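Work Package 4 report. The design task specified in the project plan requires that, given a folded chain encoded as structure tokens, an amino acid be chosen for each position. We show below one input record used in the internal validation round.
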């Protein structure tokens, strides 16, 4: 059994570590504590990374690039960042073209959204460090912007298929950690780490798939229209941050123990399925076979 300090020495407490634990504690154990690489990467995750980089580029003033070309180039770079293969269900080129077509639709919608053009980006892909419940956490904030009406908005860009409910967003760990870091942590700002001591007016998800164009008429809209409003906003006060700290403290008590339970709901999208299913010691037929071999010696 590994002690809490041994586990802490093996893992890095980041927003992605929390995300992995919530996805599946067993996957968190294999990846972060045992240091095992996944068998494959999901193209959707790479697609999200590419879109994040393109949004950053746009806010650096490059609104009119050839995004067809840029998407392919950045995807290629992200794909080659590690040796872990990407899991293409069919043919790479065909699937990549579909992803790119989807990305271009979202990029066009993002560009056409006046609020994105007229805001002032204060932080873009900014690193942070913050101590929560006695533990240091690190991570990267997607964006902090000042809107044209003077409001300050923390934004987490999402390419998920499913639009979340407001209740989900109020309790979203990542968004809460970013809000906590802006208030109590230090953030990379103008080349150095600084304490901003800031409580944004809004803490929001920018749901990029809202920019997809309707191909069919439904009760929610007509053909050719954008699917929905991309910003889903919450407002977080000091009490919300205190509640988050308490929740995180409780979650860490479980996370830093050397026992895990599988969250089989996530198995379909998991790159650890081979390592995970190799729990031969748990299979009774293997035990019987081993016992028979020992008896024959
Ligand atoms: S295969 Fe399923 S149970 Fe195993 S690590 Fe992945 S998500 Fe968890």
């Amino acid at each position: 059994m590994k002690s809490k300090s041994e586990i802490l020495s093996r893992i890095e407490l980041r927003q992605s570590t929390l995300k992995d634990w919530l996805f599946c504690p067993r996957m968190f154990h294999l990846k972060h504590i045992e240091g095992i690489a996944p068998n494959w990467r999901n193209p959707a995750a790479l697609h999200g990374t590419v879109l994040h980089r393109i949004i950053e580029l746009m806010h650096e003033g490059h609104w009119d690039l050839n995004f067809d070309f840029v998407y392919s180039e950045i995807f290629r770079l992200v794909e080659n960042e590690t040796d872990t293969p990407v899991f293409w269900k069919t043919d790479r080129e065909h699937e990549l073209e579909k992803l790119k077509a989807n990305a271009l639709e979202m990029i066009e919608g993002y560009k056409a959204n006046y609020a994105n053009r007229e805001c002032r980006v204060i932080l873009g892909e900014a690193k942070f460090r913050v101590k929560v419940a006695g533990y240091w956490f690190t991570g990267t904030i997607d964006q902090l912007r000042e809107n044209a009406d003077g409001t300050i908005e923390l934004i987490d860009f999402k390419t998920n298929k499913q639009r979340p409910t407001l209740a989900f967003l109020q309790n979203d760990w990542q968004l809460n950690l970013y809000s906590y870091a802006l208030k109590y942590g230090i953030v990379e700002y103008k080349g150095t780490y600084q304490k901003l001591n800031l409580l944004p007016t809004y803490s929001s998800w920018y749901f990029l798939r809202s920019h997809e164009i309707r191909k069919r008429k439904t009760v929610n809209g007509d053909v050719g229209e954008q699917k929905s409003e991309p910003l889903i906003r919450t407002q977080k006060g000091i009490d919300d941050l205190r509640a988050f700290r308490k929740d995180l403290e409780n979650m860490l008590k479980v996370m830093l123990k050397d026992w895990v339970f599988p969250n089989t709901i996530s198995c379909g999208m998991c790159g650890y399925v081979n390592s995970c299913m190799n729990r031969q010691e748990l299979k009774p037929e293997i035990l019987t076979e081993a016992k028979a071999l020992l008896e024959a010696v």
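The radius of gyration is 22 Å. Validation will be extended to a larger panel in the next phase.
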